Amino acid sequence: MTGGATEAAVGKRGPAPAPTALKLLRGERHLTRINEDEPQPREALPEPPQDLDAEVAEVWRETVRELAVMRIAYACDAPSLRAYCEAVVVHRKASRLVAQSAILVKGANGGWVRNPALQIQRDSAQTIRAFAQEFGLTPSARSSIKATEAAGGGAADNPFAGTG
């Protein structure tokens, strides 16, 4: 097997590479780590799907507003954004169920079992965290981004400033 075939069979190793724009915002100085041919999304805000329920649509509007302020809202991210917003709503609903009931509930055999809403709450929290990290919506994701550059400043730190 070649290296590529092996990689395809077992999957890629290590963390996913950061997008070039994010690397530049983080102050990447090694030009060999910059992908000059990275596809660029068109500059348009993601449109909410018509079939969103009201609670998901509210999360969508709030999230797109924040992503737009950070200048990282793109139309091509709509499916991932939808999954994030739906996970937020599922987490809220599961949290309400947990708050209104007990952590342990009677199982099918009459014994005590963990409330199934806890697993739904945990699964949706993991989904939220994964998408939030991708969108730069967590403190750790933002900690490595320089806000002045994200807002369009900091050209002196950009090795590609003025080249295109």
What is the overall pLDDT average? 83
According to DSSP, the number of beta strands is 2
Largest sheet: 2 strands, antiparallel
**Which structural class best describes the helix and strand composition?**
mainly alpha
Shape: elongated
Work out the count of structural domains: 1
Report the C-alpha radius of gyration, rounded: 21 Å
Order of helices and strands: HHHHEEHHH
Fraction of helical residues: 40-55%
What is the CA–CA distance across the termini? Answer: 41 Å
Q: Which strand order do you get reading across the main beta sheet?
A: 1-2
Describe this structure in words.
- By secondary structure, this protein is mainly α.
- The chain has one domain.
- It is built from seven helices and two strands, in the order H-H-H-H-E-E-H-H-H.
- Strands 1-2 form a two-stranded antiparallel sheet.
- A hairpin with a 5-residue loop joins strand 1 and strand 2 (about 110-115).
- It is elongated, with a radius of gyration of 21 Å.
- The relative contact order is 0.13.
Question: Care to give the gist of this entry?
Answer:
The protein has about 160 residues and is mainly alpha-helical.
Labels describing this entry:
elongated; disordered C terminus; 7 helices; mainly alpha; two-stranded antiparallel sheet; 164 residues
Layout: helices, strands, pairs:
Layout: H1 3-10, H2 20-25, H3 54-69, H4 78-100, E1 104-106, E2 112-114, H5 116-135, H6 139-143, H7 147-150
Antiparallel strand pairs: 1-2
Helix pairs in contact: 3-4, 4-5
